Amino acid sequence: MKKVLMVLFVALAITAMVFAQGGKEGGAAASLKGKNVRVVIGSTSTSGDSYLIASTVCRYLADAVGANMKVDGLKSGEDFYALATDKGQGDVIEIFHDMFYLSTPFGAQGPEYALENFTIGPRVAQNPTSCWATRKSAPYTTLVEAAEWLKANPNEIVRYSCESGGVSHCAFIVYWNWVNETYGPSVSSRMKVVIGGSTDKKLQQIWDNNTDIIFADVKSLLQYTQTDDPKLALKFSGTLDNMDGVDVPSYADQGITLNGEPFRFSKDFVIYLPKNIDKNIVAELEEAVKKINADPNLQADLAKMNYRTGDFLTVAETAAFIQNKYNGLANLIATAPSLDSLM
């Protein structure tokens, strides 16, 4: 009898261990349900689009998966480390925009943090608000008109304030490359870069006449396009993508192309995951994002900030979309002149 009881005890103990380890032998699948999930972003600002989008989405996503989610704003690079060193059980995920995959081609991060070393999850939101603006008194309005003005005035230059290694860097070299192909070096050589920083710094640059066209977002510049103060007044020169309710011609509207195709660029916010992430968690997030993307309350919350959920993409569709976007921009970054040479 003692021997039978001992065998039964051992069997029960083994069964308990299997379930405690997450059902490796056919038990419960890995899940975010009930977890405390750290959602990292590569920005410490709590007023920028990275934090606003991540925190807004996480309120809905946490309910959809039954987890506790908290956004953790980190310095650029620290987010990559946090994600790369996670064990892949859903304790750490990242929600971030295109600088996640562009950091390596720009040289801001090493090859260990290249896109192929992570798992691409579903897209959660888009920010189409990136734009260029100039003084209301400028002799041109749109980006194409600025190029035409340079062509007609061979002794003039136009200075563009943007940031090295960011979305504005991509926006400028796409535009510069198109001008170079369309009008030739006699025009593109007179497009000069001024390195800016925050929107406030860029605004001060244009008000002090240290630049002519600045890169920011529609929301941050809107009030200055609605004033008649001659010192402060601005006008939009073009957006990277079309926006509902904003009557400003986009790159595509102006005929600005990349590799012969109309260029459209919204900042795509995607869930990025460790390379070794459990597949059940990826599937769980895909289903949850599909659900919240259809929620009119999330759509309304994002729309208040001029953001949008975008068309729902599966994980596979998101991966193909981001890879295609990466390929085009990485090639452009590799072949375009450096900003230092355009200053």
Sum this structure up briefly.
This protein has 343 residues and is an alpha/beta fold.
Summarize the SSE layout with pairings.
Blueprint: H1 2-20, E1 36-41, H2 49-65, E2 68-73, H3 78-84, E3 92-96, H4 99-102, E4 118-127, E5 130-135, H5 143-152, E6 158-162, H6 167-183, H7 185-188, E7 191-195, H8 199-207, E8 213-217, H9 218-221, E9 234-239, E10 257-258, E11 261-262, E12 267-274, H10 279-293, H11 296-303, H12 315-335
Parallel strand pairs: 1-2, 1-3, 6-7, 6-8
Antiparallel strand pairs: 3-12, 4-12, 5-8, 5-9, 10-11
Helix pairs in contact: 2-10
Q: What features would you highlight for this structure?
A:
343 residues; alpha/beta; 12 helices; 39% helix; disordered N terminus
Detailed description of the structure:
Residues 1-26 have low confidence and may be disordered. This protein has helices at residues 2-20, 49-65, 78-84, 99-102, 143-152, 167-183, 185-188, 199-207, 218-221, 279-293, 296-303, 315-335; strands at residues 36-41, 68-73, 92-96, 118-127, 130-135, 158-162, 191-195, 213-217, 234-239, 257-258, 261-262, 267-274. It is an alpha/beta fold and 343 residues long. The radius of gyration is 24 Å and the shape is globular. Helices cover 39% and strands 19% of the residues. The relative contact order is 0.17. It contains twelve helices and twelve strands. The longest helix has 21 residues, at 315-335. Helix 2 links the parallel strand 1 and strand 2. Helix 2 crosses helix 10 (279-293). The strands form three sheets. The chain has a five-stranded mixed sheet, with helices on both faces. A five-stranded mixed sheet has the order 7-6-8-5-9, with helices on both faces. It has a two-stranded antiparallel ribbon with strand order 10-11.
